[in-house]
């Protein structure tokens, strides 16, 4: 396999084309890097070559490093393997940057330019940054940047060191620390690339032929170089570094090792010469890669998320692409589902009981599209197309020809049964019927269907257009075609699916509700609410439990509590939670929507501090628990529920348990998900902590038998249930 080829032209320009066979996007493997290295050696040694242009044979330049190769580097060679691998890349890129010039006089090098037809991410930008000039096509879909931080690592092939020296810490910060991506025009204004031109290869060729010795010398290799904005011990630089450190800590609360390591690499690197800085960058990169957090993040957020999106758990049945979807109920959820469907090119029939409500549901799409237009993300043409696909009506006859129905009417068995029958009277015999219920068992709702084998749960999260996860629920009678249909639908609307079996609250809500309840319960115990919220955030939860219930609304919590109590009878264990929750509802404090909840809100609905009235009703306990204790309660109450879901066969794949937890409710992404978190901790330690918690707080913390067994055998979740273990079985 050849990833890179070189064509030497009569004009003296060697064009190196990156075109990885069998892939739609170039990614760099270590073999590929070896090929590029040999081609660069060849071009530099060849007297007929005056300059080099590096480009791509695809519509885009490159998507980045092959993250599987990064994971492999760690598995094969440990820390030394990672460090050596990274230093190898540094050597290659530095060779391109110095391009054969005399290290003393900085003369005699061969000009190298990069020509980017489209997207250039990660190493796909680090490589161009090592060349002497970057040309990009004016491709508005192209994304240029360094998104590594989003999967728990940081740019480690010189991107960190080069960008900071090129732009200064302040300008480089959003690109490095937030993984901010730009289109070519914005990338040029940010100083990431040099020129946006219609034919980047032609422009790059012309440039290399005209470049002078001085054009090839990077500022940091020239005499008297000073870092833009100053180094840490320069008065201006000092404030920048101080601010950057504070900002990173404020955003990550110390739980993301990559952000911290990145900052250390920048700080330490800025105090030493360039080549030493690269070595420091490689050391910190190795440090991050050896941290289990980064391995878990890459595994869940990249490898496994990708595998699930590609249909890792799709039954082997023919393509089930959805052409016409009928959505019953045009409320908050129905309107959102209509938008994402129409946006993906699917025809939509949006039904509600009255025309006004159906129209309001369609108007929701209009609102989102208008916002897109004002932000220049949507064209008028696209707006018209999407709206043209949505037929808002009260007439069930319009459902004729729908191959999928998604029901999102009121959460009421009777109402749902009625609309199920009405729809089934019209839709084709082989259509699939899905319900978006969040709490009612699929088996129960399927009783209203004359075709329970074609009945399934497709559970969206709110707001539908933003939330990436969709939970597909297989009822006891649901057939494979229905599962495949749901998966193909989720693929069409470009979200990430998990497939779980039918059980109370399915998977996500089963874990979220105990998290919220534990926080509410602590309020009742007199734990300082600020401690509860901060403990959660310092474990990397995006929202504390009290903020989360304010967002989802307290009356919904009351409704769910009442229904759960009715279903469980004497086994109901959350009375202490209800004492707090029902009292809040009695005060009319329903959460953000009523501008009053566990938090106070201003007139405009903006969240302020935690509500002072909590103290009067729930006096502070004298001895406050320490931070770790609160964190353990909040984390284990979720993670143990995930283990029980696995033990009971609700989850059949821990990859889904982890990816679903991060995308569905933001379970501490740094940990890679609840199973990843438990693996970092170790089953034995988990049992030890939960035993203590169970003794103090009750059986909800009792370790499931599965966890105990794993502790005894010294097993990990990925060791026992991971895809490799599954394959071997
Ligand atoms: P909603 O009250 O905003 O919308 C329900 C809509 O259904 C209303 O527009 C109502 O007029 C319509 N409707 C009621 N009876 C009907 C009938 N017989 N025929 C046609 N239309 C009818 O509720 P929602 O928040 O959109 O929730 C809808 C469903 O989605 C519920 O099952 C809910 O449990 C589930 N769900 C909600 C969320 C959430 O966060 N709100 C998340 C996941 C799932």
Describe this structure in words.
- The longest helix is centred in the N-terminal third of the chain and has 32 residues, at 67-98.
- The strands form five sheets. Strands 13-12-11-14-15-16-17-18 form an eight-stranded mixed sheet, with helices on both faces. Strands 1-2-4-6-8-10 form a six-stranded mixed sheet, with helices on both faces. It has a two-stranded parallel sheet with strand order 3-5.
- The chain has 30 helices and 20 strands.
- It is globular, with a radius of gyration of 28 Å.
- It has three domains: 4-290, 2-enoyl-CoA Hydratase, Chain A, domain 1 (Alpha-Beta Complex), CATH 3.90.226; 324-504, Rossmann fold, CATH 3.40.50.720; 509-723, N-(1-d-carboxylethyl)-l-norvaline Dehydrogenase, domain 2 (Orthogonal Bundle), CATH 1.10.1040.
- With 729 residues, the protein is an alpha/beta fold.
- Helices cover 51% and strands 11% of the residues.
- Strand 19 and strand 20 form a beta hairpin.
- Helix 18 (508-525) packs antiparallel against helix 24.
- The mean pLDDT is 95.
- The structure holds nicotinamide-adenine-dinucleotide (NAD).
- Nicotinamide-adenine-dinucleotide (NAD) binds next to helix 12, helix 15 and strand 16.
- Nicotinamide-adenine-dinucleotide binds at residues 328-334, 351-353, 357, 408-411, 415, 418-419, 436-438, 459-460, 462.
List the helices and strands and how they pair.
Layout lengths: L3 E5 L4 E6 L8 E2 L1 H16 L5 E6 L7 E2 L1 H32 L13 E5 L3 E2 L1 H8 L2 E4 L7 E2 L13 H9 L1 H9 L6 H6 L5 E2 L3 H11 L24 H18 L4 H13 L4 H17 L1 H18 L14 E5 L3 H12 L3 E5 L3 H20 L5 H9 L1 E4 L10 E4 L5 H12 L7 E4 L6 H5 L8 E6 L8 E6 L5 H13 L3 E6 L6 H18 L3 H10 L6 H8 L1 H15 L6 H12 L12 E3 L5 E4 L2 H5 L9 H21 L6 H12 L8 H8 L1 H15 L7 H9 L3 H5 L1 H6 L1
Parallel strand pairs: 2-4, 3-5, 4-6, 6-8, 7-9, 8-10, 11-12, 11-14, 12-13, 14-15, 15-16, 17-18
Antiparallel strand pairs: 1-2, 16-17, 19-20
Helix pairs in contact: 1-2, 2-10, 4-5, 5-8, 8-9, 9-10, 11-25, 12-13, 13-14, 18-20, 18-22, 18-24, 19-24, 21-22, 24-26, 27-28
The structure holds nicotinamide-adenine-dinucleotide.
The site of nicotinamide-adenine-dinucleotide has 24 residues, from helix 12, helix 15 and strand 16.
């Amino acid at each position: 396999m050849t990833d890179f080829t070189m064509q030497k032209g009569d004009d003296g320009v060697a064009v190196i084309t990156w075109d990885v066979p069998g892939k739609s996007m170039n990614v760099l493997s270590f073999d590929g890097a070896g090929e590029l290295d040999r081609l660069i050696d060849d071009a530099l040694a060849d007297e007929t070559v005056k300059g080099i242009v590096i480009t791509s044979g695809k519509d885009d330049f490159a998507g980045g490093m092959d993250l599987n190769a990064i994971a492999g580097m760690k598995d094969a060679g440990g820390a030394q393997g990672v460090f050596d691998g990274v230093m190898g890349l540094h050597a290659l890129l530095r060779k391109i940057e110095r391009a054969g010039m005399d290290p003393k006089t900085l003369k005699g090098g061969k000009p190298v330019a990069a020509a980017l037809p489209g997207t250039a991410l990660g190493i796909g930008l680090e490589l161009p940054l090592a060349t002497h000039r970057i040309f990009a096509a004016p491709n508005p879909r192209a994304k240029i940047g360094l998104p590594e931080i989003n999967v728990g690592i940081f740019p480690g092939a010189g991107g960190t060191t080069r960008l900071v020296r090129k732009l200064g810490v302040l300008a480089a910060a959003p690109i490095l620390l937030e993984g901010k991506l730009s289109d070519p025009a914005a990338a040029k204004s940010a100083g990431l690339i040099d020129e946006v031109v219609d034919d980047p290869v032609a422009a790059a060729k012309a440039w290399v032929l005209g470049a002078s010795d001085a054009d090839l010398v990077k500022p940091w290799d020239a005499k008297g170089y000073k870092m833009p904005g100053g180094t840490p011990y320069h008065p201006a630089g000092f404030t920048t570094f101080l601010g950057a450190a504070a900002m990173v800590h404020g955003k990550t609360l110390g739980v993301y090792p990559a952000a911290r390591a990145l900052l250390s690499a920048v700080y330490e690197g800025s105090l030493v010469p360039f080549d030493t800085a690269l070595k420091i960058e490689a050391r910190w990169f190795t440090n991050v890669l050896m941290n289990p957090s980064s391995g878990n993040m890459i595994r869940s957020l990249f490898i496994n998320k990708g595998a699930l999106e590609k249909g890792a758990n799709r039954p082997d049945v023919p393509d089930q692409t959805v052409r016409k979807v009928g959505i019953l109920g045009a409320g908050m959820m129905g309107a959102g589902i209509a938008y994402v469907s129409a946006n993906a090119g699917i025809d939509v029939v949006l039904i509600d009981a009255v025309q006004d409500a159906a129209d309001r549901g369609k108007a929701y799409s209009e609102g989102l599209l208008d916002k897109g237009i004002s932000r220049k993300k949507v064209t008028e043409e696209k707006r018209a197309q999407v709206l043209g696909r949505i037929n808002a009506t009260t007439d069930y006859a319009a459902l004729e020809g729908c191959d999928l129905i998604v029901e999102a009417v009121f959460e009421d068995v009777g109402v749902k049964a009625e609309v199920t029958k009405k729809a089934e009277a019209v839709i084709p015999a082989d259509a699939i019927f899905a319900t978006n219920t969040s709490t009612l068992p699929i088996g129960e709702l399927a009783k209203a269907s004359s075709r329970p084998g074609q009945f399934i749960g497709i559970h969206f999260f709110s707001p539908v257009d933003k939330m990436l996860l969709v939970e597909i629920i297989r009822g006891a009678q649901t057939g494979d075609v229905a599962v495949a249909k749901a998966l193909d639908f989720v693929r069409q609307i470009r979200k990430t699916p998990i497939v779980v079996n039918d059980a109370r609250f399915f998977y996500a809500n089963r874990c979220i509700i105990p998290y919220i309840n534990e926080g509410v319960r602590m309020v009742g115990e007199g734990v300082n609410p600020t401690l509860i919220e901060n403990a959660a955030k310092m474990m990397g939860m995006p929202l504390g439990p009290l903020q989360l219930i304010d967002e989802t609304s307290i009356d919904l919590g009351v409704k769910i509590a009442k229904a759960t109590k009715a279903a469980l009878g004497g086994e109901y264990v959350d009375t202490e939670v209800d004492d707090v929750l029902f009292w809040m509802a009695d005060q009319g404090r329903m959460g953000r929507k009523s501008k009053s909840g566990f938090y106070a809100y201003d007139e405009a609905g903006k969240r302020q501090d935690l509500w002072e009235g909590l103290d009067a009703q729930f006096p502070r306990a004298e001895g406050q628990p320490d931070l770790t204790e609160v964190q353990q309660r909040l984390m284990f109450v979720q993670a143990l529920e995930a283990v029980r879901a696995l033990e009971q066969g609700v989850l059949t794949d821990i990859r889904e348990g982890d990816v679903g937890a991060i995308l569905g409710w933001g379970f501490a992404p740094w940990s890679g998900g609840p199973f990843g978190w438990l693996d970092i901790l170790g089953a034995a330690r988990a049992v030890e902590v939960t035993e203590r918690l169970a003794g103090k707080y009750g059986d909800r913390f009792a370790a499931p038998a599965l966890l105990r067994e794993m502790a005894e055998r010294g097993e990990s979740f990925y060791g026992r249930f991971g895809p490799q273990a599954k394959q071997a079985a």
